[in-house]
Amino acid sequence: MNLINEFCLTVGILKGVQILVVDNDRDSRDLYAFILRDMSADVITAGSVKEALEILSSFTPNILVCEMRFLGESICTLLNTLSAMEADNGNHIPVIVTSTSTIGTHNQIPNVEFEEYLLKPFDLDKFISMIRNKLQSVVAENFCPELLVLH
């Protein structure tokens, strides 16, 4: 499904979308949260993998945005927990991984799948577009229900 209606590309495009942002850099975390909330998303942030795991015990996001590197922590634990949640509820939760490193990026988290990788600093418009594209059905359902045609 493509969102081609210009009305759906406005500020509230992420209305009702639940996003978990996990980043150990407070400035990055706060910037992403600010931008996503401006697009009407429901955003919860975490500064560590441990904190994110605690949040996931009571919050199921539609998408996860996560820094790759944490001092003394592995995002594998977080991504494996997310996979288990998907298996339990049957809903896929897309993952966008961010990092300042280009060297060996995908090799650092073997056996764990994620949809997108963004090298910091990245274009915020591209970031929003990427989230919107990963969650087209959720966006259409919450923001543009008139685009959904039930067969």
Q: Can you tell me the overall shape? A: globular
Count up the helices: 5
Outline the biggest β-sheet. Answer: 5 strands, parallel
User: How helical, in percent, are the residues?
Assistant: 25-40%
List keywords for this structure.
36% helix, 16% strand, 5 strands, single chain, alpha/beta, 151 residues
Could you explain the architecture of this structure?
This protein is an alpha/beta fold and 151 residues long. It is 36% helix and 16% strand. It has five helices and five strands. Strands 2-1-3-4-5 form a five-stranded parallel sheet. Strand 1, helix 1 and strand 2 form a beta-alpha-beta unit. The chain is globular, with a radius of gyration of 15 Å. The two termini are 14 Å apart.
Give the topology, please.
Blueprint: E1 18-22, H1 26-38, E2 42-46, H2 49-56, E3 63-67, H3 75-89, E4 95-99, E5 116-119, H4 124-134, H5 136-143
Parallel strand pairs: 1-2, 1-3, 3-4, 4-5
Helix pairs in contact: 2-3
